[in-house]
Fold this protein.
Amino acid sequence: MSKIIVTGGCGYIGSHTVIALIDQGYKVVVFDDFSNASEDTLDRIAKITGIRPLFTRVDLKEKIKVLEAFNEHKEAKAVIHFAAYKAVKESINNPLDYYENNLFSLINVLNAQQAVGINNFIFSSSATVYGMPESFPMTENSPVKRPFSPYGNTKKIAEEILEDYTNANTKLSFISLRYFNPIGAHDSGHIGELPSGIPNNLMPYITQTAAGLRDKLWVFGDDYPTKDGTAVRDYIHVVDLAEAHLAALQYLMKNQQKANYEIYNLGTGQGYSVLEVIKSFELANNLRLNYEITSRREGDVAVMYASTDLAKQVLGWSAKRDLKSMVASAWKWEQNFRK
Ligand code: WQD
């Protein structure tokens, strides 16, 4: 079966995608530098799938090392590129680290895969490129705006690099996948989100509060123009997201792309408010969560959810898992991880 290179394959979405690839029979090689992941994720993947993926520890900012790593796996059929720093707040405080890491890594990977003749590439992008939306749902043609954070801007600039590069190189087949809000964990409870330090994102903050690591969840604003005043997002189960990468890969390998660079939203098409997520978490896990409303977080948008028509029509993919399974799997992982 074909070999796939997965950069950042020890990360949250990367590791779940590696599992889906191995389950589908692909041979996987992971490139990771453990800057935001740990090596034991490879053991956890082996525990779940029975197969430990091939692995090369490499800092993708080191051009020569990246070329050497790709040379070891020149028979690979595609690259799925997850490796990037992704903490919004951190990016605001350290913008150059984010531009250097996320963009130098991308360019080194693109040069290396061209050097060994790999033409299929899937890029991990983000709905954050839509900035402050004017209308809903977000389609792939919704205007892309200057994202609020340097992190988001690295995703926007990366997409522009891919567009220019594929315009200049017709034999390439590239896809960008714009994730909405990935949450949850593999139902084995053996892998999940591993935020370092105080979590910025809602779901890990909820599970750490429920686990007693945080004394309460602060709800950032209940004065938004939404049904209960709290902000609405399109939460998507990370396993649905992983399966979407498989669908995109299979579509690329069939060489039926209409254009050599295409973009797809990955969401459920359903928005939930913060309070709805909290209520669902309490109900699904039979517990009470300690939370308090506070002021809005700077840079947050009121509402964001996806149109999922294009991924369904072209990739034949749509999200299958509901909010209850997302919040239940997140809690199961938190409890297992803390054991
Ligand atoms: C969700 C909602 C918060 C924490 C970010 C990135 C995006 C992507 C996903 C990488 C918002 C509220 C949160 C808390 C809260 N990441 N919240 N209390 O901001 O939609 O998107 O993560 O690709 O690029 O921008 O996700 O989980 O941070 O917030 O009330 O302690 O939960 O205000 O309404 P967000 P989030």
About this structure: The pocket of WQD is lined by residues 86, 88, 126, 128, 152, 179, 181, 200-202, 205, 217-220, 231, 233, 274, 297, 300 (CB under 6 Å).
